[in-house]
Amino acid sequence: MARPVDFGALTAGFGPPPPVVAAGVSGGPHSLALAVLARDWAARAGIRFLALIVDHGLRPESAAEAAHVRAMLAGQGIAARVLTLALAPGPAMQERAREGRLAALLAACLEEGAAWLMLGHHRLDQAETLLFRAARGSGEAGLAAMPGWRAAPEALVLRPLLGTPPAALEDVCTRAGLPPVRDPSNDNPRFARIRTRAALADPDGEGAVVGALAQAAHALGRRRARRDAALADRAARAVTLLPCGAARVDAAALDAPLLAALLRVVGGARHAPARAEVEALLARGQGTLGGAWWRADGWVLREPSLLEALVPARAGAVWDGRWHLEQDMPGCMLGAAGAGLDGPWPAAVRKGLPALWKDGRLYAVPHIGLGPPVPGLTFRPAGGPLTAVFGVSLELGIHPGQIRPMLGSTSALLPTKE
Question: Residue 198 class from Cβ within 10 Å (0-12 exposed, 13-18 middle, 19+ buried)?
Answer without folding.
Answer: exposed
